[in-house]
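The following record pairs a protein chain with its ligand, flavin-adenine dinucleotide.
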Amino acid sequence: MTSVKTVLISGAGVAGPTLAYWLARHGFRPTVVEQAQGLRSSGSPVDVRGPAVGVAEAMGIMPMLRAAATDVTALTFVDDNGRRVGGMRLGQTRGEVELPRFDLATILHEAAHEEAEYIFADSIATLAQDDAGVDVTFERAAPRRFDLVVGADGLHSRTRRLVFGDESRFVRHMGVWIATLSVDGLDLAPHEMLMHNAPGRALALHPNRGNPGAAFIFRGPWEPGFNHRDTAEHKRLLTAAYSGGGWRTPEILQRVSATDDLYFDSVSQVRLDRWSAGRVALLGDAASCVSLFGDGSTLAMVGAATLAESLAATPGNLAEALRRYEQTHRTLVAPKQRNVARAASLLVPATRIGITTRNVAARLLSLRGLRTDPSTRPTVPSPRFEESTQRSVVSADDDRAGGASGGQ
Ligand SMILES: Cc1cc2nc3c(=O)[nH]c(=O)nc-3n(C[C@H](O)[C@H](O)[C@H](O)COP(=O)(O)OP(=O)(O)OC[C@H]3O[C@@H](n4cnc5c(N)ncnc54)[C@H](O)[C@@H]3O)c2cc1C
């Protein structure tokens, strides 16, 4: 295959701008097309951790990420009455940072925007590739030809659909649903996230630097005909799942019915045998979504850097570059995809006994002063539900409001 110079990236979320930055730095000419009018705002917290910290440091954006950090240091489990019944310390290590998704996307975009061409409010309409390039038509812009097209357009990737087929073949519902919304004006302690559980359901409140957010996570089977854009249907599903719920559930459900900015989706994994077909490759959630509660932003950033590096390392051999990218990045993705069931059992225990057991385990670990081993640590939620490293468990005895009550 001929060498690659021009690269069209679909999607300006987390993976897309990171790839644009690294491609420009390696001498490629990236163009990013984003269907939204501008950077889409979701204030839900995401984490930059593990190998993504190295990527961010090499981009020189770590000080900006730190300045935007949420600085939440504890997750506290509460019962129906808001009493603390257990929890975990959320200490970040090795420079890791949790920050609102919007800030991460903005900082990544700013790092790349001078070297990359950005087209907002547009989307790929068709793709037709031959040995030498890809002919692209857009919904609005004039048709163009690129050497390579990368789909970084998220869980419901259109690029993937156009080239690999319908998402029902690749997207697996993990038996859990997630919804997030902002809950302005809620009075929350600045460094503590609260979580209430009922069997198969969780409601978390995150202070998010004065822009508090709520997250619902609940177990449920796949809804035939589910449409991730149908907000009215999402509100109906949420209300049905949480009606009669304790703690602050009624109050937050009222916010749900009033909001026009509800993020709601299936906690899904994306699994494909190949992440590329000829001159079209997939990246981030489009290629390998781990689930909406694990490592999406971290893996999106690292995968982008790996893809750019692989393309630069084998000029003139696109097939080899894409093979290298996939081989290298799959070693990070595969173990994360295996962790999802454990994450679900920690965040949304299915039974009341499961909830009590989780809370007791949290207390025991804390009393024994254990810090979680990074390879065995539980996944810890935020409204964005990403894992973080070195989270230790904090005792319910820290609860000045009355200690464990069991049951929640
Ligand atoms: C608006 C939004 C809100 C989110 N909120 C949450 C949340 O609250 N909790 C959570 O767990 N995860 C959330 N996510 C998902 C999370 O951001 C990703 O899992 C993670 O960042 C992986 O990054 P990514 O770049 O692969 O995908 P994403 O961050 O999903 O980025 C994909 C980008 O592609 C764009 N796009 C989609 N289709 C097209 C198209 N046809 N043409 C051009 N561009 C397209 C999207 O607008 C988006 O900017 C959200 C994603 C989005 C887009």
